[in-house]
Amino acid sequence: MSAPRVPSIRFNLFPGGLSHAVTVSYDDGVVADRDLVALLNRHGLKGTFHLNSGKLGREGQLHADEVAALFAGHEISAHSVTHPRLPTIPPDELAREIVADRRALEALAGYPVRGMSYPFGYHSPEVVAALPHFGIDYARTTASHGWYGVPENLLLWHPTCHHNDDLLARTETFFAQDGQELRLLYVWGHSYEFPNDGNWDLMERFGERIAVEAARKGKGVWRATNVEIANYLRALRGLRTTVDGTQVENPSALPLWITWGGERREIAPGARVSF
Q: Are 226 and 202 within 8 A, CB to CB?
C-alpha cells in the first residue's frame, strides 16, 4: 500500500501572503530626487536611492544635510564615492570606493548601508566576488531583462526595466502573471531623466496603477525597498523542511509566507510548523 500523498510546499509568497512585489531604485543623488520622493510618497511606493557620497553638495546634487530626512521611509544605498568604472580600478581603490561610500552614507542615514548599484552598470567577476568583503549584500546592474522573477544572485540583481522602457505596458503584463511563483517588478533609472524627457506624468500614472492594485481586496502588491526584498528572500530561502514535507522551520527573525497544498500559511519567526 502506497503512502498517502503529502500536499506540496511552495516558497512563493511575499509578506502578507502576497504573490506580487514592486520596487524602484534611482541612482546618483541628484536634486530631482526631491520631486521623485514626493511622487513615490503620494502613491505609497518605496524607493532605494543609490548615492555617491563624494558628489553630495555639488551643483545639481543633493546636499548631505538633507539626505536623512528626504529619504525617510525609503532606503539609502551605495553607488561608490566618485562613480568610477569599478572593473578598471585597482583592488585597493575598489575597496576605498565602496567602504568609504558606505561609511559616509551610514553617518547620514543612521543605519547600515548594505546594498549598492554598479556605477555605469559596469561589473566583473572580480568586483562581484569582492563585494561581500566590503559589507555589500546586494548589487543592482543596469541589464534590464524584462521579466518578473526574483534574482538568483543578489549581487547580480538585474532589474525588470528602465522607466522609459514601456513601463505602463510592462506593469499590466506584471499584474496579469499568475501567483504560482514570486513576481517582482523592478524599475530603475535616474530622476534627472524625468525633467529632461518631460515625462513626470509617466511615473504618476505608474504610481496610481500600483496604488489601485495594492488596494484590491484579495489581491494586493508588496511595495518595498531593495533591502527589504533582499532580506525577505534570504530568509525565505533559509526555511527548512523535513524530508516528508510535513514540517517547516523558520530560523529567521522575519515572519515568512508559503503555500502548502494550495493554502497560504504564515510561519512565525523561530517557529516550527507541522501540517
A: no
DSSP E strands in 79-134: the ranges are 115-117
Cell of 275: 501540517
154 lies in some domain: yes
200-214 helix and 33-42 helix, angle to the nearest 10 degrees: 30
When divided into structural domains, the chain yields a total of: 1
**What CATH number did the domain enclosing 38 receive?**
3.20.20.370
Tell which residue, 25, 5, 10, 2, has the closest CA to residue 230.
25
Residue 265 included in any domain = no
Inter-residue contact 246 to 69 (CB < 8 Å): no
Burial 131-151 (b: 16+ CB within 10 A, else e): beebbbbbbbbbebeebbebb
Q: Write down how long the chain is.
A: 275
Structural domain for 133, as ranges? 20-223
Is the pTM higher than 0.90?
yes
Separation between Cα atoms, residue 163 and residue 201, nearest integer Å: 12
pLDDT in tens, 183-240: 999 999 999 999 999 999 999 999 999 999 999 866 799 999 999 999 999 999 999 9
Sheet holding 263-267, edge to edge: 9-10, 256-260, 263-267
Reduced to 3 states (helix: H, G, I; strand: E, B; else coil), residue 121 is: helix
Strand order from edge to edge, sheet including 247-249? 240-241, 247-249, 272-274
